[in-house]
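Translate structure to sequence.
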């Protein structure tokens, strides 16, 4: 029994290190996802992994983990479409997915997202939740709304009805 103790200790410590590694990789992949979805228009201030759980894949030949994270990002002054004010005003007047990009510099976007990470032969990667659909807004399919209405949060506010 005493000969097994060192092996057991090595096994348990390597399992703990693997867990730490997964959390740091998951944080990096979540940050990449947020930055990609927000198109460089927001600076990511913080990201915190709040949960990692195993997902039972239907027929996937790889391990999948659902990662939940909280984040805070602030709108910067970048505008990647066209810096002409008239073009920006026209684009921002249109409904839909550009709402977050049209927020003024300093606008804070915070929330909780969940993404599935797959462990492939090349490492952990985020699975695309919008595989065959158009995104309604940045982070669509990942952002957990938890009862928060999309309008005024990630989409333009609903127009007020005439009284």
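Result:
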């Amino acid at each position: 029994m005493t000969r097994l103790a060192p092996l057991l200790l090595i096994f348990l410590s390597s399992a703990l290190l693997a867990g730490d590694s997964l959390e740091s990789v998951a944080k990096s992949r979540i940050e990449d996802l947020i930055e990609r979805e927000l198109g460089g228009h927001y600076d990511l201030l913080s990201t915190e992994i709040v949960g990692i759980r195993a997902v039972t894949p239907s027929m996937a030949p790889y391990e999948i983990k659902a990662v939940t994270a909280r984040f805070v990002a602030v709108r910067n002054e970048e505008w990647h479409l066209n810096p002409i004010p008239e073009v920006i005003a026209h684009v921002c007047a249109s409904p839909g997915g550009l709402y977050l990009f049209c927020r003024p510099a300093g606008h804070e976007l915070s929330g909780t997202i969940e993404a599935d990470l797959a462990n492939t032969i090349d490492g952990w990667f985020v699975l695309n939740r919008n595989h065959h659909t158009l995104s309604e807004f940045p982070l669509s399919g990942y952002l957990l709304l938890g009862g928060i209405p999309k309008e005024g949060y990630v989409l333009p506010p609903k127009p007020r009805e005439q009284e």
